[in-house]
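Justification of computing resources. Each target in the renewal requires a structure prediction run like the one illustrated here; the chain below, 100 residues long, is used simply to show the kind of job we budget for.
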Amino acid sequence: MKIDAALLERLQDLSRIRLSEQERKDFQAGAALILDEISRLSHLELEEVSGRSSPSRCVNVFREDTVEPSTDQDAILAQAPDREGRYIRVFKTVEQGDEA
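Resulting structure tokens:
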């Protein structure tokens, strides 16, 4: 697969970025190398390879999913430096833009 100008334009639109002419050339060259490697991988003979082989002998340890009591809401609210009713009040971190 080759990344031509039309595909690159589509990728720019989807990602909402604009590339300079040099960045376009660099991207196309880098993408070509990646796609070539992927193409090489698709030609490997893997019929005899186990689908779940791993050099690690780690085994997942599962535990029973049990319902446990949560921390008391009043205890948490008592530690809050500022609160409003049943909510913790925090500093405003996002400025609202103009609604034009």
